[in-house]
Amino acid sequence: MNTKSQSAWKRWLPWLVPLPRGMFDKPQTGKQMLVYYLWRVSAFYVLLLILLMIVQRWLIYQPTRVTSLSVDQANAPFGVIHEISTKTEDGLDLKGWHFLAGQVACNDRASCDGELAKGRPVVILFHGNGGNRSHRVETCRLLASLNLHVFAFDYRGYAENPGSPSQTGLLNDARAFWKYAVRDRKIDPSRIILMGESLGGGVATLLASELCQQKTPPAGLVLRSTFSSMVDAASFHYPWVPVSWLLWDQYPSQSVISDVACPLLVIHGTKDQIVPYKLGKKLFDAASPASSTGIPKQMISIEQGSHNGLIYEARGKLTQAYSQFASQLFPQETAI
Asked: What is the pLDDT of residues 254-292, one digit of tens each?
């Protein structure tokens, strides 16, 4: 390092951190060399942490953005999927799709309301951190085949929706989805199942916890491939990072799931490399043994199941798990 650059470093860096005298001088002894390289490794580590902190939401949220997303892109028969929309408390218009129970066809909103009025259960789907609702068509079709309506919204910043995703933002979105179902479509809360995939499970758990504390619980909560907390999930992938200090969106599912009083179904693949099975089990263990109505919590382990491929790897097991859970929640529904 030349004299001019040495002078610049010494002039600007001391106000950032107190540095040992002579640390920029060429090391002459073994001790000086140790200090010299330790400071450089430490500086690189700190800079890397700062970079991770800056880009963390880019790493967590990976939406597929589009200018528009028509139901025609779902390649479904005409009338079985309808476009829906709601507005959040902070003024964002969020769009989604309504998959009709039994995959019946309707021509307009009035006929869709007629189908909803028949009282079949409704699933509000909270998808994972990547893609958009068009990537969840197979899951929605499976649920609809079980005589369940599905409201599949996209979060802010996903698909054609405005805004940028964050934990606070996604929880606001979840509240808007709930209000849309209960207020706009007149669906009784006791007929609504919240279902979250991966990161969506963190959103669904936060919403379910709120609703149960407000004494308006959903009919049930389904969590597929969901973490105990974002801190735990991030620590698995970045064990050398003090995640709990740096993470803005922590999704503390394990801390709030004890407040969830509705029936719970957890599904997780044993070979999940994105959210390890042990994190799903940790979340399950933190939940109450049974719901306020006496239905025991359930965990379905998919042997050799991955994170994103369960709908293809274990479609039969998923169908059976969803069907049996719905039958427990709505035993009077002979069609399920």
From this structure: 999 999 999 999 999 999 999 999 999 999 999 999 999
- 233 in the same domain as 101: yes
Least confident of 18-22, 137-141, 219-223: 18-22
Q: Nearest CA to 207 among 181, 177, 182?
A: 177
User: 260 lies in a domain?
Assistant: yes
Distance, CA of 271 to CA of 257 (rounded, Å) = 24
What is the distance between the alpha carbons of residues 310 and 225, in angstroms, rounded to a whole number? 9
- Whether residues 53 and 111 fall in one domain: no
Q: Which pLDDT band, with edges at 50, 70 and 90, does 39 fall under?
A: confident
C-alpha dihedral, 51 to 55 to 59 to 64, nearest 10°: -150
Total number of domains constituting the chain: 2
Specify whether 54 is located in the same domain as 70: no
The answer on 216 and 291 residing in a single domain is: yes
Looking at per-residue pLDDT, the higher value among 178 and 332 belongs to: 178
Residues 17 and 130 in one domain: no
pTM above 0.85, yes or no: yes
